[in-house]
Amino acid sequence: MLTGNVIFQNRMKGIGFLSKEDAISFGCSGPTARASGVSCDIRKLYPYEVYSKLNFEEVLATEGDSLARYTVRLLEMKQSMDIIDQLIDNIPEGEFQTKTKAVLKLPKGEFYTRVETARGDFGVYVVSEGGTTPYRIKFRSPGFSNLSALDHMVRGQKLGDMVAIMGTLDLVIPDIDR
């Protein structure tokens, strides 16, 4: 009903353009970057868990506008359903939750890892002195970098277009304010 609506398409097409070069420059990730043609799916580039054993496509578009970001998100939902279909029959029997120690001792040193979330690259940086509490912990939210491109995307647009542009960035403000 929405995707095929001519009014919706005309309100989204060409609005909030973000080029591939600008998406990279602003550090965008997830559907925001992939709608501008940036191949950045962590599950494909640096597979973790079982992603290397799964068959799924990285959804890319090159238009770089609000309609492309909307379309990429829809197609990514279909890919997610395909991933679930591949995994559902392979869930091991038995307890679904294993017990872990209540207190974990972290090894001394620095650690950084990242995962692909619905909004993009989510990173965690930990510095430990070898105790049970990290010396420092920092999160890299995909929304923060994606939001940094907003000013660039709205230049020359109408005020009413900001709703469409911000909506296709899929911002979660508390997630950005870390």
What would your notes on this structure say?
The chain is of the alpha+beta class and 178 residues long. Helix 5 runs parallel beside helix 8 (161-169). It has helices spanning 6-12, 20-25, 30-34, 42-45, 66-88, 142-148, 150-154, 161-169, 173-176, and strands at residues 109-117, 120-128, 136-140. It is 39% helix and 13% strand. The protein contains 9 helices and 3 strands, in the order αααααβββαααα. It has a domain at 6-89 and 143-172. The longest helix has 23 residues, at 66-88.
What is the secondary structure topology, with strand pairs?
Elements: H1 6-12, H2 20-25, H3 30-34, H4 42-45, H5 66-88, E1 109-117, E2 120-128, E3 136-140, H6 142-148, H7 150-154, H8 161-169, H9 173-176
Helix pairs in contact: 5-8
Give the fraction of residues assigned to helices. Answer: 25-40%
Our Rg estimate from Cα atoms comes to 19 Å
Distance between the termini: 37 Å
List the strand order in the largest sheet: 1-2-3
What does the average pLDDT come to?
Answer: 92
Largest sheet: 3 strands, antiparallel
H/E topology pattern: HHHHHEEEHHHH
- Helix/strand-derived class? alpha+beta
Number of strands: 3
Assign an overall shape.
Answer: globular
Provide a count of the helices: 9
